[in-house]
Amino acid sequence: MTNNSMAIRFSKYISLFKIAALAKYATVLIGFWGAYWSAQFFLASNAYYSVKNNVEQWQREPNEVSVEKANAALAKIDTSIRYFSENSLYFQMRGQVYEWLAYTGSDNSNQYLNDAISSYQQSILLRPYWAASWVGLASSKWKLNEVDDEFYHYLATAQEVGPQDAVLHSFISEFGLSMYEARSIHYVNVKPILTKHLDLGLQNPLSRQRIVQSITDKALETTACRWLKSSQYSVRKQIPGCITYNK
Asked: d(Cα 203, Cα 236) in Å, to the nearest integer?
């Protein structure tokens, strides 16, 4: 074997060694990156679900919310957003937390509601066809006493992108019942769709409890029963006192 051929073979060995070393290095880097991403995902998801549990509890028991609890939830969801700033779900949840901060009666209630609107808008930029964020915008506008053309635009868009969404059924039912109770002119605007969403919402287990609670809180059982006289038995029986039996 000539010196030249030996040099060529040695050069090939060196090249193969370099390739193997680079492949091993790349594998290690990918492994580290995977572990780093997994850790971020775990922290973000853990924070999100903790806040989600808080919000669901406050929806069932509004008296349980406080400024301290809501601020703690806000810090957690901000952690999720810090790790994954393009997750529309996290921004939608932050909007809900801001609404609960406003609910606590803080002097900054209007600012919190405007912060909620900003969060919902960011969520919509990332996921335009998500009814929950459009409902969130309408909800915040209502709480700001800004039931205007913009409010109805948000509500109409929510109906367009998520006509079967439980959040939409709950919101339209609560808004419509409140407007009826207050004898507000806005009841005329929501009346054409109120019965439909009461019916659909009482069928849906994800919205049923909130709607029944809204009906009973306003003592509108008889009224709701009358509105839903053409609904199925399974729907009407959800309203306390709507179904009676002759003895």
From this structure: 10
Residues 6 or more apart in contact with residue 6 via CB below 8 angstroms: none
64: amino acid identity, one letter: E
How far CA 228 is from CA of 33, 197, 225, 231, in Å, comes to: 57, 11, 5, 5
Domain extents in the chain:
1-144, 164-247
Please choose, from the candidates 62, 36, 128, the residue with its C-alpha nearest in 3D space to the C-alpha of residue 91. 128
pLDDT at position 106 is: 79
For domain 1-144, give the CATH number.
1.25.40.10
Tens-digit pLDDT profile for residues 147-174: 999 999 999 999 999 999 999 999 999 9
**Model-wide pTM > 0.90:** no
Query: Would you list the DSSP string of 147-201?
Result: -SHHHHHHHHHHHHH-TT-HHHHHHHHHHHHHHHHTT-THHHHHHHHHHHHHHHH
Q: Tell me how long the chain is.
A: 247
Closest CA to 83 of 42, 54, 40, 121: 40
Whether 104 and 66 have beta carbons less than 8 Å apart is answered as: yes
> What pLDDT sits at residue 79?
93
Instruction: Give tens-digit pLDDT for 190-247.
Output: 999 999 999 999 999 999 999 999 999 999 999 999 999 999 999 999 999 998 755 4
